[in-house]
Amino acid sequence: MVNEKIRAKEVRLIGVHGEQVGIMSAREAQIKAREADLDLVMVSPNAHPPVCKIIDYGKYRYELARKEKEAKKKQKVIEVKEIRFSPNIDGNDMNTKLNNARKFLAKGNKVKLTLRFRGREMAHISSSRHIINDIADKLSDVATVDKPSKQEGRSISMVLTPIKDK
Fold it and tell me: Taking a C-beta distance cutoff of 8 angstroms, is the pair 131, 115 a contact?
């Protein structure tokens, strides 16, 4: 809320240099803001009475945007990378996929291991479950099991989380 859009009858006014001016009507506060060639901005509408400040509104919006941008910089987005296997995977292919999983975990991403079954492979799901558990064991030095292996339709999946260094 800025200038004439402020509908409150009384407001607590904070001056140009951050000093408390006191409680007054919104009209008086707008007049003081005009005299200073600045805007009257409602900073805390939920307070009783609402808190208004005499500031340059454009500069205020710029500062808010800058603070928001700084907060976004400090956030860490964790992605879930998926690695797919088949039950009849060869040793070298397995090692390549394990190395990729290690790279993802080193970057701090979660890894979803998916063992996919096609056609006649569906008849041997129980005998292939050890593959995904072996992969988790091989990655146990860099990851912990976040979600244990679970069958979902034509696949078995498991989620690994990187181990945090202390």
Answer: yes
pLDDT tens, position by position, 88-99: 888 899 999 999
- Asked whether residue 91 falls in the same domain as residue 155, the answer is yes
Do 107 and 142 contact (CB within 8 A), yes or no? Answer: no
Residue 29 domain-assigned (yes or no)? yes
Q: Name the residue among 131, 122, 92, 2 with its Cα closest to residue 56.
A: 2
> Domain for residue 75, yes or no?
no
Q: Shortest CA distance to 44 belongs to which of 85, 106, 1?
A: 1
pLDDT digit string, tens, across residues 54-82: 888 888 889 889 999 988 887 777 889 99
Phi, psi dihedrals of residue 9, rounded to the nearest 5° = -75, -45
Instruction: Give me the phi and psi of 147, to 5 degrees please.
Output: -125, 120
Q: Which long-range contacts (CB under 8 A, 24 or more apart) does 1-4 make?
A: 1/41, 1/42, 1/45, 2/39, 2/40, 2/41, 2/42, 2/57, 3/30, 3/33, 3/39, 3/40, 4/30
Q: What is the pTM of this model?
A: 0.55
Is the backbone peptide bond immediately before 49 cis, with ω within 30 degrees of 0? Answer: yes
Q: Describe the chain by its helix, strand, coil percentages, rounded to 5.
A: 40, 35, 30
Read off the CATH number of the domain in which 140 is found.
3.30.110.10
